[in-house]
Every structure is written in structure tokens, then in C-alpha cells.
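Hi,

I'm pasting everything inline rather than attaching a file, because the server keeps stripping attachments. The sequence lines come first, and each chain or strand is labelled.
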Amino acid sequence: MVKKPFTPQLVYMEPKALDYPLGQELHEKFTRMGIEIKQTTSHNQVRNLPGKNDFQKYRVAKSTLVVGIRKTLKFDNSKPSAEYAIPLATGCMGHCHYCYLQTTMGSKPYIRTYVNVEEILDEADKYIDERVPEITRFEASCTSDIVGIDHLTHSLKQTIEHIGQTKHGRLRFVTKFHHVDHLLDAKHNNKTRFRFSVNADYVIKQFEPGTSPLSKRLEAATKVFEAGYPLGFIVAPIYLYSGWKEGYEKLFIELDSKLPRKDREKITFEFIQHRFTKPAKRVIAKNYPMTKLELDEEKRKYKWGRYGIGKYVYQTDEQKEIKETLIHYMEKYFPGSKLEYFT
Ligand code: SF4
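And the predicted assembly:
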């Protein structure tokens, strides 16, 4: 479990990144830190990372940062949690065995941060304008754990303050990291929902290496709540194992004992059951060959998905039991809190 904020082992800079103040700032920062900086014309050229085999290369990639420009300014949809995904970064230094990024990032699991933040925010403004008078929500953690790298870039902080000034924009993101101190004084104007991903102890210990321990996440959640941010928890992936009901109740007891009592009814919850795809199963077996993650298609229910790639979710009766059990805990320990969705 990490306690220290992420520091890349290797940095690649796209030359155009130096045309932006953040690009220059990062170049200076990494030079001062004595981190090796390589030039690359495009992130696609980031090949030949050190490592004897795929297993080692994957680990090196997860601690490699590419500083570049976001060229595609078309935002993806991000249902059910928001209207759009705002692209500030891709990739993550965490090693969660079940992470969906393993398949979406394919052979390029390194972390990319984009320095043309102003252009990204201008685009966000256009999306907001198109939907006025409706509220437009942006999800900042669709393609990375943005909080985990923001102590280096502060682009999330800039986005929080930008959305804070809009009338119809809202921002949300989720994290498994506790390095939130630089975000506490951001002028969020109640327009950003800061969520933490939490889970039963068993799931965190078995499947979430390289992320902050639950106790640290809850300390950070308390600070964020006291800084006036709307707060939420995503319980995901909800995973069935022997003793899961006790495990998830312990989680809620822990949340109850650690969080301030005031304004609790403002805390939101999102529940997401574990799912996997066939391509994900293959990648997980390659990257985490020792994993205990249960990925048996026979035990699951097939659910048709986008692009023809279906997901394996829990059986209907198991889903019902998961939903009822967790809602019961939420109502017992956080009466008045709202469940945004179960999926
Ligand atoms: Fe994936 Fe989130 Fe874990 Fe990072 S912290 S590896 S984004 S699940």
C-alpha cells in the first residue's frame, strides 16, 4: 500500500508540451527532482521501455509519465455518473487487478497528462453552453485516477476552480488516493463532488495494490468534507467472497465511525457490482498471473455491452441480494443519504 505521493521513474515530454506554461513547469520540476526526461514526438513512440519481459515492462509503464497535448477535444459520454468525461489525464499508477483501464489502455499502460488545460476547459464551456438551462456534469476520472497525479500537475485543481465559476457546470471524480491537501483550498463553490472509492477490507488487500489504505482514504474524505466539498462514496467493485456481507458491513461501520456527523445526509453513494469482459480476463491473467480474482464466466450472467463486448455480471438473484444488503447498510449507518445508482 502506498503512503507517498506518486513520483514517476521516467518522464517523456512531447516537444509541443513546452509551448504551454504547465509543460515548462513540469519540465523544470522533474529536472530539479533528478528524474530522467526523454523527448518524444508522440506518445505512440514511447516504446522499448526497460524490462526483460511484458510483465516487467507493464510495471515500468505504470510508473512512466508522458507529458503531452490532448489533441482530441471531443468528450466521451460518461453515463450513469455524468454527461461527459473531461480528459485531463489517462492511465494510473495503481495496480488494481480488476481495473478496466487494463483493457482500454491495451499495450500503452503509461500515464499521460495533458498540458493544454485551457483548451480542454474552453471545450467544456462549449458543452455547458449547448445544454443551458440544463446542468452539465463532467466526470474527471473516467480514464485515470486523476487525484493520484494532481499533486504534480494541479490541472484538476484548475478545473475545479474553473467549473466553480460556471453557473451550469458540475465536476465529479473518484479516487483511491489520499493526497488531497493541495485541493482543500480550491474555490470549488459547491460545484465539485469529490468521491472516494471504498471497499471491504478483503477486496482492498487482495486486489488494490499500489493505492492508499482505507484509513488514509477516510482521513482524506474527512478533510475534503470539512473543506465544504460535496462528498460521495463509490463502493466498487462490489465483489462476492466468503464473508462478504460482514466485510461490507464492517466497511459501513468504519465509514460511520470516521466521518464527521454534521451534514451526513448530503453524502451520496454509488454501488457498482464487479464485472469483467473476456478481453479483460486475458489481460488480467497476463499482468497479474497470481490473482485470486474470480473470473469464471460460467458463474456469471452475460450482459450485452457497447461495441459488441459483453460483460459478465453477477446472476440476477445475487445482484438483488447485493443491492438489498448494501442499501440496508447505507440506510442503517447513513440515514438520509442518497443512492445515486446501482449497476
Ligand atoms: Fe484503476 Fe482506479 Fe486502481 Fe488506478 S486506482 S488502477 S484507475 S481502479
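Residues 316-333 form the longest helix (18 residues).

If the labels don't parse on your end, tell me and I'll reformat.
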